[in-house]
Backbone:
């Protein structure tokens, strides 16, 4: 099989699979089919007629990818946690308490925003937990599920990026050291120096209160979604009924005594375990799930049959979301072989100077992250080149770091099939495309304001 190095002659043709995916995702509104078709198109470009065998080999290779395995295990375990919260009445107890303090549509949205900020250690934790916790509360005040998903997604990656005590902070801090932008042992401090310049994350986070207060106009599909919810009380969008049914497949056990601490303490423990395990979210999730399971059985809230059946059923609720993420990893694998990131960097590198570098990094890398859904993996390829250009041109390092993290955040927030987009849609009871298209105008506004900011700051 050809490697990325052998494929430089593909030139502009490297864009074809991703363009196919974007067009199909918008037209058929089914991301998994679009992603698979785009990946197969890329496989045909690479291998010609023997695409069936190579497709089979690609699926096997992608399933062995460490990052994908991590996503499957984390999301499955989080699904199990949410299932236990629902079955034991812990989630309902939390909803009851919050409902007493929420008195309007504005406070319902802002409570969701505040919960998202509180769940800062990982964007997956935010995306999966906040939707489950806030669905019924926002439904009461006729907030569309699209709006709920937008608010949660705006506090997922953006918050995890801005607070360095997170999985994002640890990952990119190590990457800064590896690429020479930070000295050994100084990765986290170099990362922190870039936080004031992470313009997209700040803007995305701060637009939400303006939207909630009616100070920022509703745009495009979101305007229609909010009209549907407020005028007709239809919070769940048409076509998302199967996702809502999946979310409601686990029900509270009849007669259970609700205890809010069974929700609050495990979430606090999850944050604490994440810090304890050096920001490794998977062992933290395992430890939390194990202790919650022991507590539920030990306190006789559920018997062991009911407990483990709920754990399995919770994992099942994540299957559709994980299938889309798997297909996105297939597209990433093909784009890596085609050398998409390398090709675009090669085109834009001649235009990068100390003054233009932050602007171009955000614009170009943001577009790649948006098109491919790769918010971390792509930067493993791109950041060494960006670091070399930063040092060679004498560009302001914190500003370049801010532009790089802004681009990654934009991709996670805006892409139609990014992990956070898919998981947020699942937890909120909307399809990934409905969620992505309704929040895209707000993301684009944030991106344009960020571009202006980087042009001024440079």
Residues:
């Amino acid at each position: 099989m050809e490697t990325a190095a052998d494929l430089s002659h593909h030139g502009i043709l490297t864009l074809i699979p991703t363009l196919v995916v974007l067009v199909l995702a918008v037209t058929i509104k089914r991301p998994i089919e679009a992603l698979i078709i785009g990946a197969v198109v890329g496989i045909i470009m690479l291998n010609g007629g023997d695409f069936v065998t190579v497709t089979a080999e690609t699926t096997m290779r992608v399933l062995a990818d460490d990052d994908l395995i991590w996503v499957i295990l984390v999301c499955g375990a989080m699904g199990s946690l949410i299932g236990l919260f629902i079955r034991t009445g812990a989630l309902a107890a939390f909803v009851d308490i919050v409902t007493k303090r929420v008195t309007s549509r504005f406070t319902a949205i802002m409570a969701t925003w505040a919960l998202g900020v509180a769940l800062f250690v990982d964007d997956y934790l935010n995306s999966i937990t906040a939707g489950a916790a806030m669905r019924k509360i926002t439904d009461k005040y006729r907030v569309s599920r699209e709006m709920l998903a937008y608010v949660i997604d705006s506090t997922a990656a953006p918050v995890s990026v801005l607070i360095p005590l997170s999985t994002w902070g640890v990952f990119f801090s190590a990457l800064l050291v590896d690429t020479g932008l930070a000295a050994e042992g100084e990765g986290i401090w170099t990362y922190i120096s870039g936080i004031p310049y992470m313009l997209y994350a700040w803007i995305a986070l701060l637009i939400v209160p303006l939207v909630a207060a009616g100070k920022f106009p509703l745009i495009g599909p979101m305007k229609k979604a909010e009209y549907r919810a407020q005028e007709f009380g239809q919070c769940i969008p048409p076509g998302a009924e199967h996702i809502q049914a999946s979310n409601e497949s686990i029900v509270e056990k009849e007669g259970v005594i609700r205890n809010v601490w069974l929700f609050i303490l495990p979430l606090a423990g999850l944050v604490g375990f994440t810090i304890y395990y050096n920001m490794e979210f998977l062992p933290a999730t395992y430890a939390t799930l194990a202790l919650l399971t022991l507590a539920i059985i030990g306190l006789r809230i559920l018997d062991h049959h009911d407990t483990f059946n709920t754990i399995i059923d919770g994992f099942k609720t994540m299957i559709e979301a994980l299938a889309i993420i798997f297909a996105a990893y297939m597209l990433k694998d093909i784009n890596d072989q085609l050398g998409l990131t390398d090709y675009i960097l090669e085109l834009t590198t001649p235009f990068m100077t100390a003054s233009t570098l932050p602007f171009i990094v955000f614009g170009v890398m943001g577009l790649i992250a948006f098109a491919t859904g790769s918010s971390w993996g792509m930067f493993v390829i791109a950041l060494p080149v960006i670091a070399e250009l930063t040092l060679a041109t004498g560009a302001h390092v914190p500003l370049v770091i801010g532009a790089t993290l802004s681009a990654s955040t934009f991709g996670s927030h805006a892409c139609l099939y990014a992990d956070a987009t898919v998981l947020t849609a699942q937890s909120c009871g909307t399809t990934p495309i409905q969620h992505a298209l309704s929040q895209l105008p707000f993301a684009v506004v944030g991106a344009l304001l960020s571009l202006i900011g980087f042009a001024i700051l440079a």
Summary: The longest helix spans residues 432-457. The mean pLDDT is 90.
